[in-house]
Write a structure and sequence with these properties.
single chain, about 280 residues, four-stranded antiparallel beta sheet, Rossmann fold, alpha/beta, six-stranded mixed beta sheet, 10 helices
Length: about 280
């Protein structure tokens, strides 16, 4: 299941003097089982767009099509929006926005209770979701606000996974996490993708984009200005002050300029770079 965005616009505080056009005639497509990074400077409209995907924000103009669901101003009062949120799961940048129950298991079970599952059946679903994110039974009775940042984020993800969405949207999933926690979380997201989920990651982290994304969409002042591969993006963003080309790609390009014939588009990790350097040296010694 994918997402099709047709000419979507949205303005905050429409009737105020401070009205802000957050999305400006955006059209794009996200395909089934895609792994897409959504990038852009702060205020470019990224978070607004992904909240339109499951109807948390209703666009002023245009429409978003997800399977047989249509999110539009005309359909803003549709009761089907609740069911759309079962198809498109959104994990916010700050997990505290999604955690409110007194224990971890109750927090995760809340989602399925919303869709009619009660009692032990809901708790069993919650336990299965917690197991998917690597949190065992020792976490069930713990207050979620006493967990570490990485653990809170896992609980928030479990609270979305429990309703079994086909599309998962992560808004700045690694923000505030240490390198080890970030790597662990991205391994989980990669695993979910391999299991068939469509993944959309909103991020400023170009290293994350280079390592994990298959496609990249870029917004600038509410407009879509780029759609393509990570490597094509890095050629595109050289004139953007707040989006930087990953150091790994910079090093690979410098080595190529010095005469080392490296396939820059195929370098996503340090191990990739080292492997190509080793092969080059074997062929030139």
């Amino acid at each position: 299941m994918g997402i099709k965005v047709n000419n979507v616009s949205y303005t905050y505080q429409k009737k105020a003097s401070t009205a802000t056009l957050a999305l400006n005639d955006v059209s794009l497509e996200i395909y089934d089982n895609d792994f897409v990074a959504l990038v852009g400077e702060t205020g470019s409209g990224k978070s607004t767009l992904v909240q339109c995907f499951n109807g948390l924000i209703i666009p002023d103009n245009g429409e978003i099509v997800v399977d047989d669901f249509i999110v539009s101003y005309k359909n803003r009062k549709s009761r089907r929006l609740k069911n759309l949120r079962k198809r498109v799961g959104l994990v916010f940048q700050f997990p505290e926005y999604q955690l409110f129950e007194e224990t971890v298991e109750k927090d995760v079970a809340f989602g399925v209770k919303n869709f009619g599952l009660k009692g032990e059946a809901a708790l069993e679903k919650a336990h299965q979701a917690l197991d998917l994110v690597g949190l065992d039974s020792s976490y069930y009775q713990r207050p979620p606000f006493e967990l570490s940042g990485g653990e809170k984020r896992k609980v928030a993800i479990a609270g979305v996974l429990v309703i079994e969405p086909d599309i998962l949207v992560f808004d700045e999933p690694t923000a505030g996490l240490d390198p080890e926690s970030s790597k662990e979380l991205m391994a989980l997201i990669t695993k979910l993708h391999e299991q068939g989920k469509t993944i959309i990651v909103v991020t400023h982290d170009m290293d994350l984009v280079n390592t994990y994304a298959k496609r990249v969409l870029m917004l600038d002042h509410g407009k879509l200005v780029f759609s393509g591969t990570p490597n094509a993006l890095f050629n595109h963003i050289q004139n953007y002050d707040r989006l930087d080309v990953p150091l790994l790609i910079k090093v690979a390009k410098k080595l190529k300029e010095k005469g080392m014939d490296l396939p820059v588009e195929g370098i996503h990790t340090i191990d990739d770079l080292l492997t190509y350097i080793k092969k080059w040296r074997e062929n030139h010694v």
